[in-house]
Amino acid sequence: MKYIKNIIWIVVILGFSIIYSRYVPADSKPAFIVTAVIASFFIFHFVIRKNPRFKSYFLSPFNFLSAKYASKTSYDIPIDLMFEKTLEVLDTTKFKLVHADKERFEIFAISPISWKSWGENLYIDFTEENGETIMNFHSVAVMQVQTWDKNQKNSEHLINSIEDSLTI
Q1: Is 34 exposed, middle or buried (0-12, 13-18, 19+ CB in 10 A)?
Q2: 3-state DSSP of 43-86
Q3: CA-to-CA distance for 125 and 129, rounded, in angstroms?
Q4: What parts of the chain have a pLDDT lower than 70?
Q5: Do 68 and 55 form a contact (C-beta atoms < 8 A)?
Q6: I need a surface site. Which of 7, 104, 115, 140 has the fewest CB within 10 A?
Q7: Which of 151, 135, 39 is nearest to 81 (CA)?
Q8: Cα distance between residue 88 and residue 96, in whole Å
């Protein structure tokens, strides 16, 4: 039910494509095919955007259609408290929580669409190393090769919000 809006958009676009292809002159067919392929990738990315199972697809180095940014930050706080604190901070930021897995210490959030980008997927996971909690942050633009530093600003915004909430 939650994907019904995406399915409706796909059907509408495919319907227009079929109707349009009947009226396109033969010499314009290659341009139409290229446009249809690009539109298909665009629609595909938006359909799978909010599904946490596609994390490996978006983070893959072979996915050249999405700009990626990664950072690591260490904290002297136990991993379970850091996980809870990050969830608490996400509620106060512009990011929208999509999925959180407390057993694996993974968080999946999205940023809203703006005039600079089509939105970003934020993948946050935590590990423990030498008594410290390491926050691995990944920001991936949904369908952009250039993000005008939006991915880095997402990281800075979240880390600054966490550090502000830890200050007494």
Answers
A1: exposed
A2: HHHHHHCCCHHHHHHHHCCCCCCCCEEEEEEEECCCHHHHHHHH
A3: 13
A4: 1-10, 13, 20-21, 23-24, 26-28, 168
A5: no
A6: 115
A7: 135
A8: 12
